[in-house]
Design brief:
The structure is a homodimer.
Chain A: H1 22-29, H2 33-40, H3 48-61, H4 67-74, E1 79-84, H5 93-105, E2 111-116, H6 123-132, E3 138-141, H7 149-156, E4 161-164, E5 175-178, H8 180-193, E6 198-203, H9 209-224, E7 228-233, H10 242-253, E8 260-263, H11 266-278, E9 288-293, H12 297-301, E10 306-309, H13 312-327, E11 336-339, E12 342-344
Parallel strand pairs in A: 1-2, 1-3, 3-4, 4-5, 5-11, 6-7, 6-8, 8-9, 9-10
Antiparallel strand pairs in A: 10-12
Helix pairs in contact in A: 1-2, 1-3, 5-13, 6-7, 8-9, 10-11
The structure holds a DNA duplex.
DNA sequence: ACCAATCATTGCAACGTTGCAATAAATGCG
DNA sequence: CGCATTTATTGCAACGTTGCAATGATTGGT
C-alpha cells in the first residue's frame, strides 16, 4: 500500500475526486476538526507531534482552505480590489500596475479583483459598493484627487486602502505617489541649465492632486530661476490625436513660442513633438523638451528627448505592500511613500 | 413613524449598522427564512402577495445576497477570472480588455478577478489553481497557442472558459478571435493593389495560433497575386527599442528591400517606421506600410500609414458575453465568433 | 362533509470554517 | 495519593445560503 506519494498529490485530492477539507484531514489523522483547524493555524497549545501529523496529512491531500468557508466565518475575503479609474493617459498604465500588484500578492492568500470604472463620478459608487458589501479586505485607488471623495468615504468607514496619489486631507492615510514635485523641479532645472528662458508645461487632468503639485512646484522653480513659465491644461483633448499634434504645430509657429517644454504625459508628448517637427522646430536646439515616461515608446521615436521615468510596475508593487500592511493593522501614517523620478538625460 | 424612505436605504441597512441578510427580511415580514430565500429567487409556488411583500422589504433594507454564503452553499463563485498572459505587444491591450469585460459584467452578479501571469509556462499552473480550488465560474485566457495547454486542461475538466484566439484542437471550445486571416489577406491585397511586388511581413510571438493563421494566409495570398513574400518573426526583440528601430534602418539600406511591409504590432511598426525614415525611405512612395492597430498612437505619429484596426475593448465585451453564456450551459460550438478587421486606408 | 389533491409555507441539514467553553489527560505539589 | 493546575484536545454553535422533505392551508369533487 502506497503511503505517501508527493507526485500523486498533483490534481488528486482524496480517494474520491472531491476537494480536501478539514474533515478529510480529520479523518486521515483521527484528530478532531477543531484540532486540525487549530493546528493548521499554528495553535501554540498543540503537541509538536500532532502538529507534525496534521501538517503531513494536509500536504499529502494538498489541502487549501476554502475561501468561502473562511470568508463566511471570519468575514475575511482575502481579496484586494483595484478600482481602475482610467481615462489614463499613461501608456500601459493598467498593465504595469496590475503586474506589480500581481507580483506583490504572489505567495499570499490574496486575490486581485479589478473594478473598472471609467466614469470618474461613478467610481465613488464602486467604492461604496465594496464597503457596503464587504467585498474586499482592502482597496487600491488611482488618479487620486486633492479632496477625493473615495478617500473620504473609506476614511469615514475606517476601511483599509491605499491611494496612488496624495490628498489634501488632514487625517493621514496610506498612499504611494510619484514625486511630482521632484519631477517638476528636476525638469525645470534641467531646462534652465541647458539654456531655456521661457518654459511651457503641459499637464493633463486638472482634477488630480498631482496636477496641483506639479503646477505649484513648476511655478516656484521657474520663479527661483528667474525665467518665465506658462501652464497649459490639456484635459478635454485626446492625448493621441491629430488635434494634439496640431497643438504642437501651432506652437511651433508662434512668435513667442517657448524654448523649453515639459509634458507630464508620454502620449501627449509624442503627439506634440510630431507637431513641433511639422512646424520645422529642431528639437534640442530650437526647443528643449522633457517628458514623463512610463513606457519606452517615446524614447524609441525620439531618442534624443530627455525623459523622466515613472515606474508604474514598482508603484503597483509598493501600493500592494503598503495595503497589506495596512490591512494587518499598521497605522496609516507609517504607510506613506514616494517614488523618486529617474532622469534619463540624452545627449 | 416613517414607513418607507427609499433615500434612507442608502448606506443604512438595518436599525443597527449590520448588513441585511435573509434573516433581516424574514423578521421584517414575519415569513420564514426559506420562504424569503425562495421568493427572492422567484419561487413559482409563492402567492403573489408574499412575493410583493418580500421584494418590498428587500428593497427597503437594501438586501444583497452574501457572496460567501451563496458560494459555500452552491459552489457558485460569481467570479470570472482573466488570466493575463502578457508579454503583450499591443498598446493598452490590458486596459481595453479589462474595460470591455467590466462593461459586460456590469449589472450582473459577477466580479472580475485578474491573475497576471507573465511567465507563460507558469500560466498553466494558474489555470490549474483555478480549477482545483474552484476559484471562479469561468476563465478568459488570451494569447492562445495552437495547442494551448491551458485550453487542453480546461477542456479535460469540462470547465467553462473562452479563449481570445483559436486553437487546433478537434473538440470545439468557446472562443472569440480577431480574424487574422482576413487581416493578412486584406493587407496583401491592398499592397498589391497599390503596386507592391515584394512584401515583407513582420510577425511577433510564434507560439500563438494567430501567428500560423497570419503566415499561412499571407503566403497563400501573395502566391495568388503572383508576387513575392517573406516572413520575419520578431520574437526575442523588444517591440519598442533602438534595436527594433535599427531593424527598419537596415531594411532601408538593403538593395533588395521590399516595397511593401505588413506588421501585426503597432509598437513594432512605430519603431520600424522610424528606422525606415532614418534610412531615407519615403513612406507611401518607396515603401508602402500596413499595420494592425489597437490604439491611436501610430496614426498620430504616422497619419499616412494604412492601418487595420483591432478593437480590443469589443473583444473584451464579446469574450465575456460568450463566457457567461457558456457558464449558463450553452454548448461550446455555438459560442465561437470572429471580429472582422476594420481597414483605415489613408491617402 | 369528508378525502384527495393542489397550493403555500416551513424546518432542517448541510456547505467549510473558526472561536469559545468544556472536557480529558498529564503534570505539579503538599 | 488526592487535589489543583497546566497542557492538550474536543464539541458546539454560528456565519448566510439553499434544497428537500414535510407540514399546514386551501380548494375541488363526490
Amino acid at each position: 500500500m502506497t503511503k505517501f506519494r508527493p507526485e500523486a498529490s498533483r490534481g488528486i485530492r482524496k480517494p474520491s475526486g472531491k476537494r480536501a477539507t478539514l474533515k478529510t484531514i480529520s479523518e486521515l489523522t483521527g484528530l478532531s476538526l477543531s484540532t486540525v483547524s487549530l493546528s493548521l493555524r499554528g495553535g501554540a497549545s498543540l503537541k509538536e507531534e500532532t502538529r507534525q501529523k496534521v501538517a503531513e496529512a494536509a500536504a499529502q491531500v494538498g489541502y487549501v482552505p476554502d475561501r468561502a468557508g473562511v470568508r463566511l466565518r471570519t468575514g475575511k475575503t482575502n481579496v484586494i480590489a483595484l478600482v481602475l479609474d482610467g481615462s489614463d493617459e499613461a501608456i500601459d498604465f493598467s498593465r504595469h500596475m496590475i503586474r506589480g500588484i500581481g507580483d506583490a500578492i504572489g505567495g499570499t492568500r490574496y486575490h486581485l479583483t479589478v473594478m473598472p470604472e471609467f466614469d470618474r463620478s461613478r467610481s465613488v459608487e464602486t467604492v461604496r459598493y465594496i464597503l457596503e458589501n464587504r467585498t474586499a479586505d482592502g482597496v487600491i485607488i488611482t488618479h487620486t484627487g486633492a479632496r477625493d471623495r473615495r478617500v473620504q468615504l473609506m476614511m469615514d468607514h475606517d476601511f483599509p486602502f491605499v491611494s496612488h496619489g496624495r490628498t489634501e486631507f488632514f487625517t493621514p492615510h496610506a498612499f504611494h505617489d510619484f514625486h511630482s514635485e521632484a519631477f517638476a523641479e528636476l525638469a525645470v532645472e534641467r531646462l534652465a541649465d541647458t539654456g531655456a528662458r521661457d518654459i511651457l508645461i503641459s499637464v493633463g487632468d486638472g482634477t488630480t492632486n498631482n496636477y496641483h503639485n506639479i503646477v505649484r512646484t513648476f511655478e516656484r522653480t521657474v520663479a527661483r530661476r528667474g525665467i518665465t513659465g506658462r501652464v497649459v491644461v490639456q484635459d478635454g483633448i485626446r492625448p493621441a490625436s491629430a488635434e494634439m499634434r496640431q497643438f504642437g504645430r501651432d506652437l511651433a509657429d508662434k512668435p513667442d513660442r517657448p524654448d523649453g517644454i515639459i509634458c507630464d504625459s508620454e502620449t501627449r508628448a509624442i503627439s506634440m513633438l510630431c507637431g513641433l517637427e511639422d512646424g520645422g522646430v529642431l528639437l534640442g536646439r530650437d526647443i528643449r523638451f522633457i517628458c514623463k515616461q512610463t513606457s519606452d515608446i517615446l524614447s524609441t521615436v525620439f531618442p534624443n528627448v530627455d525623459t523622466i521615468e515613472e515606474d508604474v510596475y514598482a508603484a503597483g508593487l509598493e501600493l500592494t505592500r503598503l495595503l497589506l500592511r495596512r490591512i494587518d493593522g499598521e497605522p496609516a501614517e507609517s504607510l506613506q511613500t514616494l517614488s523618486e523620478p529617474v532622469a534619463h538625460w540624452r545627449s
